[in-house]
Amino acid sequence: MLNPHFDNRFVRDLPGDPDTSPGVRQVHGAAYSRVAPTPVAQPRLLAYSADMARRLGFSEADVASEDFARVFGGNALLPGMQPFAANYGGHQFGQWAGQLGDGRAITLGEMINADGERWELQLKGAGPTPYSRSADGRAVLRSSIREFLCSEAMHHLGVPTTRALSLVGTGEWIERDMFYDGHPQMEPGAVVCRVAPSFIRFGNFELPASRNDAELLRQLADFCIRRDFPELRGVGRGQALYAEWFARVCERTAVLMAHWIRVGFVHGVMNTDNMSILGLTIDYGPYGWVDNFDPGWTPNTTDRYQRRYRFGQQPQVAYWNLGRLAGSLSLLFDDTEPLQAGLRRFVSTYLDADRENTARKLGLAESREEDTALMQHLQDLLTEGEIDMTLFFRGLADVDVHSPTLAPMEDAFYDPARREAVEPALREWLERYAARVVQQDLPAAQRRERMNAANPRYVLRNYLAQQAIDRATEGDIAGVTELLEVMRHPYDDQPGRDAYARRRPDWARERAGCSMLSCSS
Ligand code: AMP
Ligand code: MG
């Protein structure tokens, strides 16, 4: 039992830091530093993803064993694990920030499951590493619950993401100044084990490039292509291969952005160290879900003035981030045209994916040029009228296009005055929409099915997560378990679970954790 197979290619194939001391330092010429998790007082399994455990081949008995909580709380290693912290840099809020690295994440190893899939197991909050800078290497329960739940919710929504295996309470308290206002408080600590085929970020390439270390940059690129992009096997070599690889990164990132816009997810901190080379959603911090549709909204209080990472801006930011990656990779190229071509691939892929999502969200059998304008107009009205995105699109599937009314979207309005102001225009839009749907030859049931597969009924609304966090902080983890269960089937109507599909209640409008989040985690 608990005897998985590991094949640790990252530490085997890439140069590591010869210094194995724990001290904080600048690490040159190395992709990682070996470091073990720091044991915690009382590791206790609070929640786990049965889905992910099964995928990895852990039985229920494995999960229930004391060893499981010990290993995934950072108190023990399994044979074959070779823990390390990765070395990377990044652009934070538009500025080059130098070396960052895994300050509180520690990879345990690359596990190979029974199907031959490679899954990197990584603890977040496992204690200090050479990259912890001035921080403690730990994570609080509230942010760990948020990462745990959202990873799994996103996966079940069909959005590329890192996964979560487990949430372990540490039995320790740590100090955080949640509002950065000089009033730190003690909060319970936790460790999440997150899982992905690769945790390589744009920043892994940016750091050696910033130091003009073309050798390490090339090693990383070759490694990443070999391990993480098996589909590129046989696709040329040298610069042609690097170019195609970069283009694939652009494609994956574009597809991810279209998904975020489709489901109403705002990452909150799209720094280049938080951009996965595989186009996965990674590093769940002060993220949020759009309640009333608003392209200008960001949950991140640290970003409230500039709003760089606001909902509607995310595709543009991703493009900018890819530009930084391209700049780093240019060290491997004689000229930049192949990289420009990759960036163009981002634009075309995003436009295609967004057009396809528009058609799916509106229940159109095929997408036409003019549908983009139809969607844009709707989005303007949703913003103006302060209308709930999730409830509106879900309700739209129930509109009878032969006599369209707003009745199926009745619950989506937050403010009666704003509703009144926007209602005439919204009715007009609905008429146009109905006319567009009637033109096509798609039976009503099929249209509804198509829409309900693209417009979730349940998303991890910020206030829902916060309620589960409040309960967990009181010692009752059931709210987390229930929420995880609901989020496993976001597109199904789940009888008896209407409470999870309601619009944000008034009390949550301005409450910390519900509409505003800081980076403190
Ligand atoms: P983030 O904004 O969460 O992506 O974090 C940016 C950088 O800060 C990363 O290098 C993290 O590893 C590091 N970091 C964040 N929180 C902590 C912490 N509590 N201890 C050590 N490093 C941290
Ligand atoms: Mg990060």
TrEMBL record:
List positions binding Mg(2+): N274, D283
State its cofactor.
Answer: Mg(2+); Mn(2+)
Kindly name one Pfam family recorded for this protein.
SelO
Which residues are noted in the entry as ATP-binding? G101, G103, R104, K124, D136, G137, R194, R201, D283
**This protein's superkingdom?**
Bacteria
Q: Where is this region: Disordered?
A: 1-23
Q: Where is the active site?
A: D273
Q: Give the record's family classification.
A: Belongs to the SELO family.
What protein name applies here?
A: Protein nucleotidyltransferase YdiU
- Give the originating organism: Lysobacter arvi
